[in-house]
Amino acid sequence: DDYQAEGYGHFMRKEIHDQPTAVERTLRGRLDDRFGTAHLGGLNLTPRESREFKRVKILGCGSAHYAGQIGAQLIEELARVPADSEPASEFRYRNPLIDPDTLYVAVSQSGETYDTLATVQEIQRKGGRVLGVVNAVGSSIARQCDGGIYLHAGPEISVTSTKAFTVTTVDFALLALHLARVRDLSPADGQRLVRGLRALPSQIGEILKLEDQIAGLAQEYGTCPNVMFIGRVRGWPVAREGALKLKEVSYVHAEAYPASELKHGPLALISPETPTVAIVPDDELYDKNLTTLGEIKARGGRILALAHRELPSALADHTIVVPRAEPELDPILLGIPLQMLAYHAAVLLGHDVDHPRNLAKSVTVE
Ligand code: G6P
Fold first, then answer.
1. Locate the SIS domain: which residues (predicted)?
2. Quick one: average pLDDT of 187-211?
3. Is 61 in the pocket of ligand 1 (CB under 6 A)?
């Protein structure tokens, strides 16, 4: 009851600004500088079990699914175990094969999403083991799972998820680091990631200072009838979540596409009326991304880039410069400006930001 939007105007904005504190809380007591690893007391996995499973399957709905996609990339990249994320709402209806050598992970802020809960029960019925990545302590999904990680993100009131999404990706980085260090990752790389994780709260603080710039861009990139979001590999789930945020609160039609797939169809949608928001981290795919931006510019498309440095004006009309994390952790930071973009677009359009039409915070029906 004493949780208020305070001076922030809306819960969504307050929760965006809560993120440095929420990330700090989720990291507290979990990082080990000496061994370059993470300690997650609730996992209920012995080091031997952590070494033995052969795949990771992540399941959740909405933003939880996209956070899971970032998680799957982190786990596969760091722990070198094949991992993927699928909407729980699809998985539970397709009679999936449950494999005893797969570690299943259910993701849910509320811990009450019916499709996700039913997925956990279906996996367990067929003998699978499920970890939960859940915010609400003691919720149905948390109780049903065989172990897991609590987000400790604090309450999230706004229907559209912001801080729970970010904290979920941080917790997947912890899980990936933990698994990686019992499998294949060197102590030095582990320590590098621990330092990178510790830096996140202050880096998020730096991003929040960009709010005025982002609010100024919201008119041009967040209120037109159609917006395209693109990213490659690490940038791809960031683009998907960015498009979902914009849809949810501004009701703008936003489409997310892998930058690599643009030329196989959606390039036909590009015109001066349909701007693109491009995720362009300074990683090994930077040059490939610049080529894609050139293809969009050649069709008269306007581009807002999220990048680690100002892009040439011939390739991007505007750049939001985001602080650089360790490369594996970049997606955690790159999503945050997109939350602010969606928020300010919705405010400009006069929508009820915390209670978007047709949506519920937690979908407890089928
Ligand atoms: C609803 C909300 C989304 C949320 C999804 C999953 O659809 O509107 O914002 O991502 O449920 O919620 P959960 O509580 O399971 O993370």
1. 45-185, 217-356
2. 98
3. yes
End-to-end Cα spacing for the chain:
29
- Which of these, 166, 362, 360, 353, lies nearest to 251 by C-alpha position? 353
E strand segments, 98-252: 102-108, 129-134, 148-150, 226-231
Is the minimum distance from the CB of 109 to ligand 1 under 6 angstroms?
yes
Please name every residue paired with 271 in a beta bridge, in sequence order, or none if there are none: 274
- What's the whole-number mean pLDDT along residues 84-112? 96
pTM attached to this predicted model: 0.97
Q: What is the whole-number distance in angstroms between the Cα of residue 192 and the centre of ligand 1?
A: 33
Per DSSP (E only), the strands in the chain are 31-32, 37-38, 55-60, 83-87, 102-108, 129-134, 148-150, 226-231, 253-258, 276-280, 303-307, 318-321
Q: Choose the residue to mutate in 139, 343, 361, 365 for probing ligand 1, maximizing ligand atoms within 8 Å of C-beta.
A: 361
Ligand 1: residue whose CA is nearest its atom 9 = 160
> Which of 249, 277, 229 has its CA nearest to residue 12?
249
Candidates 24, 16, 26; CA nearest to 150 is: 26
Cα-to-centroid distance, 359 and ligand 1 (Å): 9
On average, the pLDDT of the chain sits at: 96
133 lines ligand 1 (CB under 6 A): no
Q: Which segments of 61-202 are extended strands (E)? A: 83-87, 102-108, 129-134, 148-150
The residue to mutate among 161, 162, 172, 248, having the most atoms of ligand 1 within 8 angstroms of its beta carbon, is 161
The span from the CA of 207 to the CA of 221, in Å, is 18
Taking only Cα atoms into account, the Rg of the chain, rounded to an integer number of angstroms, comes to 20
Catalytic residues, by residue number, are 361
pLDDT at 321: 98
Inter-CA distances, 181 with 80, 178, 212, Å: 11, 5, 41
Confidence of residue 4 (pLDDT cuts 50, 70, 90): confident
Task: Say if CB 6 and CB 157 are below 8 A apart.
Answer: no
Which helix (H) or strand (E) element contains residue 70? helix 63-79
- CA distances (Å), origin 313, targets 226, 293, 295: 22, 11, 14
CA of 132 to the centre of ligand 1 (A): 15
ipTM of this predicted structure: 0.95
